Amino acid sequence: MTRTLIRARLLSFLREPHGPDDTASFRYIEDGALLIDGGMIRAMGEFSQINAPDATVIDHRPHLVLPGFIDTHLHFPQTQVIASWAAELLDWLSDYTFPEETRYSDPALCAHMASAFLDRLADHGTTTAVAYASVHAASADALFAEALKRDMRLITGKVLMDRNAPDALCDTAQSGYDDSKALIARWHGKGRLSYAITPRFAITSTPDQMTAAQALAVEHPDCYIQTHLSENHAEIALSCQLYPEAVDYTDIYARYGLLGPKSLLGHAIHLSEREIGVLADAGAKPVFCPTSNLFLGSGLFDDAKLRAAGLVNAIASDIGGGTSYSMLQTLAEGYKVLQLQRQRLHPFRAFHWITRGNAMALGLEDRIGTLDAGTEADFVVLNARATPAMAQRMERATTLTEELFALQVMGDDRAIEQTYVAGQPRKAG
Questions:
Q1: Is-above-0.70 flag for pTM?
Q2: What is the pLDDT of residues 229-244, one digit of tens each?
């Protein structure tokens, strides 16, 4: 395989920035190079100091190369119901999501949509995704197969859902366990793939199914767990009504052993002090989904409060309740959500969050999320002058901070010059 030398301005974070002046938290190289071989970064440094005469040079100057973006919560079967009008979360699920997900019983549709889904992620600079499939095993099979073909890092799982949904979308506690077990055996650890045990949320799983999910988690402790928590007041009330023995919504998952360092909890907006303490003790990972929280009117994620309790928060697009595949747009809306609470999202922390920060939430910071030698060659080439409006703004930009903030606020897929997955260019558009 041909070795490649990527020449560009390079930015990679060493730790989470502590503030606007924390320039020691990242490495920025004005004329840098990445040596890529076998899907891995073999060297990172000044272009003049990397000796690789046999490598093919790809010059992306004057653009900026960062680690590929990591999206920690999105829904594969919902890509064709983005921008569907509804009053709030539960209406949106019943009116759009459930009818749409019913279509994913068709393996041919699943295969077609898996290719389109991963194309859209690459177009927007996302190189690692944590996705929900539908209740159908075929949907998870199709998504895993397409990601394997692309050598993409992907975490997914079939949804477990045995009540409060259309019959065509319901499994049983036993069939959900059996299908998940078979999918784990077939895909988990193959290439760059990992399985996520996926009870959709407490409303759509019976106690028997939650017990089955717990059994899967015990039998496969290296798998992730993904579900939803405290997105919406009506959801919380119904969950607690269905599990009256639980102290609160978080306690439902705690009682079934579903909270731990590999648990990714979408939304986590309306949490009591007790719940925050439980999540912190378990090391579970709340996932901030700003575009969907605003679109569905669900509430404002209190990043500072959760962080002060010791939690590691991830951030995600939440397609299709979320309104953009772009992690840049996710940061733009996240900035506004936090501004409303007098919390400041500086661009250094923002770009750390969607790269190394999300990698830390997944326990994968030694593999993805940086440009360090020895890590997987997932990276994105960013153009802060991609549109006339951005170019006009950049005429007055004089610092890296200003460039990053312009990308954070004004950027979308047009700002993605190229996306590399395992060292291969993958942007379809």
A1: yes
A2: 999 999 999 999 999 9
